[in-house]
C-alpha cells in the first residue's frame, strides 16, 4: 500500500484511488474481475488489490457470492 509522503505524491497513493472504485460501486454491483476491467486504464492490479483491501478494512464494501457490494448503497 502506498501512502502519501515526500516521495509519493497524493495522486499516486492508494488513498487517491479509493473514490474511483467507490464511484463505480455506487451505481451497481460488480464482480472483482469486471470492476478491474472498468478501472484497468487508471491503475494496475497491485494498486487495485490495495484499494480493495482498504475498502474491506473500512467496511465500505463486502463480497457476497463473488459480487462486490457497496455497503452504503441501499440494495433493496
List keywords for this structure.
76 residues; alpha+beta; Arc Repressor Mutant, subunit A; 3 helices; 13% strand; globular
Structure write-up:
The chain is α+β, with helices and mostly antiparallel strands and 76 residues long. It has a single domain, classed as Orthogonal Bundle (Arc Repressor Mutant, subunit A). Helices cover 46% and strands 13% of the residues. A hairpin with a 2-residue loop joins strand 2 and strand 3. The protein is globular and about 40 Å long. The mean pLDDT is 92.
Could you provide a short overview of the structure?
This protein has 76 residues and is α+β, with helices and mostly antiparallel strands.
What value does the average pLDDT take?
92
Number of strands: 3
Q: How much helix, percentage-wise, in residues?
A: 40-55%
> Quick one: overall form?
globular
CATH class wording: Mainly Alpha
Strand order of the largest sheet: 1-3-2
- What's the order of the H and E elements? HEHHEE
Structural class, by secondary structure, is alpha+beta
User: Residue ranges: pLDDT <50 for 5 or more in a row?
Assistant: none
Largest sheet: 3 strands, antiparallel
Radius of gyration: 12 Å
> What percentage of amino acids are in beta strands?
5-15%
SSE blueprint:
Layout: H1 14-27, E1 30-31, H2 32-39, H3 45-57, E2 61-64, E3 67-70
Helix pairs in contact: 1-3
Amino acid at each position: 500500500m502506498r501512502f502519501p509522503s515526500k516521495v509519493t505524491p497524493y495522486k499516486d497513493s492508494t488513498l487517491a484511488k479509493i473514490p474511483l472504485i467507490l464511484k463505480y460501486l455506487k451505481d451497481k454491483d460488480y464482480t472483482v474481475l469486471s470492476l478491474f476491467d472498468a478501472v484497468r486504464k487508471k491503475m494496475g492490479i497491485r494498486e487495485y488489490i490495495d484499494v480493495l483491501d482498504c475498502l474491506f478494512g473500512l467496511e465500505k464494501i463486502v463480497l457476497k457470492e463473488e459480487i462486490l457490494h457497496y455497503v452504503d448503497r441501499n440494495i433493496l
